[in-house]
Automatic annotation (TrEMBL):
Residues spanning the signal sequence: 1-28
Keyword Signal: yes
Keyword Signal: yes
Gene3D superfamilies (UniProt xref): Exo-inulinase, domain 1
Spans through the membrane: none
Keywords on record: Signal
Xref: PANTHER family: DUF1680 DOMAIN PROTEIN (AFU_ORTHOLOGUE AFUA_1G08910)
One family name in Pfam for this protein: Glyco_hydro127M
Annotated ranges, domain Non-reducing end beta-L-arabinofuranosidase-like GH127 catalytic: 103-406
Designated name of the protein: Non-reducing end beta-L-arabinofuranosidase
Superkingdom in the source lineage: Bacteria
Non-reducing end beta-L-arabinofuranosidase-like GH127 middle domain segment(s): 421-515
Source organism per UniProt: Aeoliella mucimassa
Length: 826
């Protein structure tokens, strides 16, 4: 850190001296709100520069996708979601005043100005106007209900978009006053929790404002924010997502997705190679440990592994698209465009319904049913993979709205050499100034990612020379690029091809990007199939069942299979095109609808009678609470729902041994020395639970209500039994108890299927909230009927079933899918 500080201080001193020589740094060379904002010295020059929102417009199927969003959940969000009602804290009311409304407004503004939709623009005005009018004399703004830095970071992001679209002269002074407030107050009120994890968003807008105004003190603020944030460069470089930090933030999937841009953003300021290289190094670690075939990283909500039924959160999709686009512009790495496309064209459509009236909080690679049931995730939501407007935890239903419009924004970028670049591909038009001020429009006519041809028609207002950088996907081994029918030199996969020439009206660039079928290996040597940027999975006969009838078309559904899904493929993994055929159909307005899939792969397969749903198992878990959850150990166990189980923990200093029922050997053992003494208690999560015969060192514990302090839920105390009905969170702590170094705590615990319940010990600082305490928890989870597939059996496999032809469709077209297949023995 000393090296960083000394180098930055030198740069800052030079900039401060330069600013003193300027008569009005706040107005120095400030570009028009419609111009790309390139970096000023001493920030590093970046190869690509972000185009203002609205510079890129969607066409074809992509336009229809945004229109469906307007007609669907985004257009009706203020009628569906309580945080967006008239009493919102972000409208001056007493309602929710944290992140939900800013999330929604961020997506609303992006959609409104990408579509140039006047009605949506007018709707966004009330949110923006209240924010701008809420600023205090000291520069702080927002609801009085909280002073958290984090939700205001979301507001900064959407105010940048709003300014670019409208040129509203209130915005830049507003940001400048707020940033002055931050510089003054952050030393004594530093970033914490979510703000510490997501500070890259704040820094990005600080640097954008500096590039507009030339105010050198903004670089000092950016440096301060970087130092108060989690050390993401070290976390990504040294694989420190787990283990280094007590809290969960460094391994929370949405935090990680947002933090992917942190180090590249900071590199502009620090000029350190470690910051520049952290994105690539971190992604190697993440893909190795948590990677998925759809280009995403598993996280439910914590980074969660390589299983075929590990999920990913919808919020992670939209944040990943934004973060990777930021990194792509700063680093100039063409392969990051591949990453954007993989997430946007696989995981994002898999998370939403074809008409964009429903979302799923999680989506799984092998997802054979969407049922209201536990899934065994660390953060489990029983409706978390069910399509509907309220799936899972209520953050994604506010945050997902920016996904498609931010993809459109990210398709194109300006270049530092006065040109334009294709960052990712999709049907669109871009309008910008090149070569110092000549307007140009480029029409991108394509049915990508379903087809392999892209035609760019250049329409400058006058003949003009500028570089056009076209990205060659890394997966394309034999690309062809031609200008006005004349083929250019060989293009290199995974790099940009720069075409620097004088462009005239109706000049055309044609890209032919053949899409060979590729295979990859996953859990248990299973095989995944990709063609171009798309991943393919088994086509199901999806049976949709309405289980909640909300207003309009915004209902909730379970989805069950009306056809078999347990197939092993007959495929040559090294030459998959010898085993699979490709059928192309029309690319319609809604290509993500299962019934109108534009590409179908046909394969031969046999059913595997032994491959079915997961066997339901119970679990014993030991962990530490410190106003957040830190798992220590867990083991599977044979446990029955709604049946009493004896749970005993023997503690000797830092050593714990946990026994269940009549086991003579501990089910699990662990060690932790964080907390030395405290009370005992009971805890339940999403479970009806009953606790009987609670003892410490063999002595019964008082079971009357006056002996206990309860939190969150209504507890029942009756004749030696303490019970609680199913609730999201429930705790009860024994008053005036203090277990210390050595003791035995035991009870008979009955837990309903799918939830967990157990014992707290060495508890202190308890408050409402499941993990809002200091101390330890040992609990049991009893199984409920499981709706998720078992892992594919280890390949190669054999089957005596007849050979059948099966159809594989794009990952994003389905709510039920198998994408990790067993492979038949040769």
């Amino acid at each position: 850190m000393m090296k960083y500080t000394m180098k930055f201080s030198t740069l800052l001193l030079l900039t401060l001296l330069a600013s003193k020589m300027a008569t009005s740094p706040a107005l120095a060379d400030q570009p028009s709100h419609r111009q790309p904002v390139a970096n000023r010295a001493p920030l590093a020059e970046t190869p690509l520069v972000r185009l203002p929102i609205g510079s890129v417009r969607p066409q074809g199927w992509l336009l229809r996708q945004l229109e469906l969003q307007r007609e669907g959940l985004t257009g009706s969000a203020e009628q569906l979601y309580d945080a967006l009602e008239a009493n919102s804290g972000w409208l001056g009311g007493s309602g929710e005043g944290w992140e939900k409304s800013p999330y929604y407004t961020k997506g609303l503004i992006a959609l409104a100005y990408t579509l140039d939709d006047k009605q949506l623009q007018e709707r966004s005005e009330k949110w923006v106007s209240w924010v701008l009018s809420s600023q205090r004399d000291d520069g702080f703004f927002g609801p009085d209900s909280n002073n958290d830095w984090w939700p205001r970071m979301v507001v900064l992001y959407y105010l940048r978009d709003y300014y670019e679209a409208t040129g509203d002269t209130r915005v830049v002074p507003f940001l400048t006053r707020y940033f002055r407030h931050q510089l003054t107050n952050l030393p004594n009120r530093p970033l914490t929790d979510w703000g510490r994890a997501r500070a890259g968003d704040n820094i990005e807008i600080v640097l954008w404002t500096y590039n507009l105004t030339g105010e050198a003190w903004l670089l000092q603020l950016a440096d301060l924010l970087a130092k108060q944030a989690y050390p993401w460069t070290e976390i990504f470089t040294d694989n420190q997502f787990y283990g280094r930090f007590e809290e969960f933030h460094p391994h929370h999937i949405v935090n990680v997705s947002q933090a992917l841009k942190f180090s590249p953003v900071v590199w502009q300021l620090s000029h350190h190679a470690a910051d520049r290289n952290a994105y690539a190094k971190g992604l190697v670690h993440l893909n190795r440990q948590y990677g998925r075939i759809d280009g995403q990283i598993s996280g439910t909500e914590m980074l969660s592994g390589l299983s075929s039924t590990d999920g990913v959160e919808l919020c992670a999709d939209v944040e990943r698209i934004v973060s990777t686009a930021v990194a792509a512009r700063i680093l100039g790495d063409a392969t990051l465009g591949d990453e954007i496309e993989q997430v946007a064209y696989n995981s994002l459509p898999a998370h939403v319904t074809k008409d964009l009236t429903g979302i799923t909080y999680y989506q799984l690679q092998n997802q054979v049913q969407c049922m209201n049931t536990p899934h065994g995730f660390e953060q489990d939501y029983h409706n978390g993979i069910m399509p509907g407007p309220y799936s899972g935890f209520p953050c994604c239903c506010y945050n997902w709205h920016m996904g498609w419009p931010k993809l459109v924004e990210s398709l194109w970028a300006a270049t530092s050499q006065g040109g334009l670049a294709t960052v990712a591909y999709g049907p669109s038009t871009v309008e910008a100034e090149v070569a110092g001020g000549v307007s140009v429009r480029i029409v991108e006519a394509t049915e990508y990612p379903f087809r392999d041809t892209i035609q760019l028609t250049v329409e400058p207002e006058q003949p003009v020379k500028f570089p056009l950088m076209v990205r060659i996907p890394a997966w394309c081994s034999q690309p062809k690029v031609s200008v006005n029918g004349e083929q250019l030199a060989v293009a290199v996969p995974g790099q940009y091809l720069t075409i620097d020439r004088e462009w005239k009206a109706n000049d055309t660039v044609k890209l032919e990007l053949p899409m060979p079928i590729r295979t990859s290996r996953w859990v248990n040597n299973s095989i995944g199939i990709q063609r171009g940027p798309l991943t393919y999975g088994l086509e199901f006969d999806e049976q949709w069942h309405r289980v909640a009838d909300h207003q309009g078309p915004f209902d909730e559904f379970t989805v069950t299979p009306g056809s078999d899904w347990n197939y092993a493929l007959e495929i040559d993994a090294d030459q998959p095109e010898q085993s699979l055929s490709v059928d192309l159909a029309e690319v319609g307005e809604v290509p993500w609808a299962l019934e109108s899939a534009p590409v179908v792969l046909k394969a031969h397969a046999r059913k595997l009678s032994g491959w079915g749903l997961q066997q339901a198992k119970g679990q014993v878990v030991l962990g530490r609470g410190n106003h957040g959850w830190h798992p220590l150990k867990s083991e599977t166990a044979t446990l029955a729902a709604n049946q009493p189980h004896k749970l005993r923990v023997e503690v000797d200093g830092p050593q714990f041994r946990v026994y269940v029922d009549d086991a003579e050997q501990p089910v699990l053992a662990g060690s932790d020395n964080e907390f030395g003494r405290g009370s005992i208690g009971l805890r339940a999560y999403r479970s009806t639970a009953r606790f009987e015969d609670i003892r410490v060192n063999g002595e019964p514990v008082a079971s009357g209500s006056d002996a206990w302090t309860t939190y969150d839920a209504a507890w029942k105390f009756d004749s030696g039994t303490i019970a609680v009905d199913e609730h999201l969170t429930a705790k009860a702590v024994l008053n005036q108890s203090n277990v210390g170094r050595k003791f035995t705590l035991e009870a008979t615990v009955t837990v309903s299927g799918g939830g967990d319940a157990g014992l707290l010990f060495r508890v202190g600082e308890a408050a409402d909230g499941l993990d809002n305490y200091q101390g330890y928890y040992v609990g049991i989870t009893a199984p409920q009927s499981h709706a998720d597939a078992a892992e594919p059996p280890t390949s190669p496999v054999t089957s005596s079933e007849p050979l059948e032809e099966v159809r594989l469709v794009p990952f994003g077209s389905t709510k039920l899918r198998v994408v990790y297949f067993p492979v038949l023995e040769d």
